Amino acid sequence: MLGAALGFSLMGLGVKLASATFPAMQIVFVRSAFMTAVTVAALRHAGVSPLGVDHRTLALRGVFGAVALSLFYIGISRLPLGDAVTIQYTAPVWTGLVAALLLGERLRPIVLLGTFLSLAGVVLVAKPSALFGADAALDGWGVAAVGSAAVLSGFAYTFVRKLRQTDRPMTIIFYLSWIGLAGAAPFALGGTWVWPTGWDWPLLLGIGLATHAGQVGLTKGMARLEAGTASSIGYLQVVLAFVWGALVLHDPIDGLSLLGATLVVSSVLLVVRRARSG
C-alpha cells in the first residue's frame, strides 16, 4: 500500500501537468493502452490465462475502477489539485462501509479513527477553497466527477479484496486496463486528438508507469489487509503529493500544510501498527 501511495502520487502529478496540453480522456486512453500491453506481456510470461476465474467480480472491479480513475482525471483537469485530492480521499470511508456491507468485514474503531484523522489532515494539507476562501468558486462538474470517483473507488477496492481468493493481481489489473481502454476509446479517438511532441512522450509514459505501479501495490496490498485498513494507509499519498507539489510545482509550504501532513503520517502509523498486531 505504501508503494501504491508512491505510484498514485506521481500519477496525480503527471496528470496535472499533462492536463494542460491533453484532454483528460486521451490521457486515460494512453494510460490504459500502456497498462494493457504490460499486463498481457506479464501474464504471457507467467503462463497464466488473462480471463481469470471470477469473471463477474473481475468485470465489476474493472468497470468501477476504470470509471473512477477516468472521473478523477477529469476532476483534476477542472479543479485545483488540493480540492480534487480532498474530495477523492473520502474513498476509504466508502471502502470500509462497502466492505462491511458486501464482505461482512468489521468496521474496527481504530481504522475509523485513523480514517477520520487522515481526512482531517487531508483538509489541512489540500486547503479546499470551499473552506479556506479561495477567490474562485469550485467547478460544479469537477466536484461531481471527483465525488463520484471516490464512491466508485470504494466499491472497486472492495472487489479487489474479494478477488484475492480467486485471481492473481495481474489478472485483476488486466481487466481494469482493457475495460478502461475500451471505455476511453470513443471519447479519445472521436474527440480532439492532440499528438504528443518532445517531452510529452516521457510524461505520458511516466503516467502509465506510475499508474501501473500504483495498481500493483494496491491490488497486492488489498489482498493482504482488510479493506478499511489498506485504504487508510493509502492516505500517505496525500503527503507525497504535497511533497511533489512543493518540489515540482513550487507550491508554498505553510504551517497548516505541515500540521496536516503530520496528522496523515500519524494516522497511517496508527493503522499500520494495528494491522501488524492483529
TrEMBL record:
Membrane-crossing ranges are 28-46, 58-79, 85-103, 110-134, 140-160, 172-195, 201-218, 230-249, 255-272
Q: Which residues form the EamA domain?
A: 1-125, 141-272
- Is Transferase a UniProt keyword of this protein? no
What compartments host this protein?
Membrane
Gene3D superfamilies associated with the record: 1.10.3730.20
Main localization of the protein described in the UniProt heading = membrane
Q: Known InterPro entries for this protein?
A: EamA_dom, EmrE-like
What's its membrane topology? Multi-pass membrane protein
Q: Which GO terms describe its cellular component?
A: membrane
Q: Which UniProt keywords apply?
A: Membrane, Transmembrane, Transmembrane helix
> Which PANTHER family does UniProt cross-reference here?
ACYL-MALONYL CONDENSING ENZYME-RELATED, SOLUTE CARRIER FAMILY 35 MEMBER G1
Please state what the protein is called. EamA domain-containing protein
Q: Which organism does this sequence originate in?
A: Rubrivirga marina
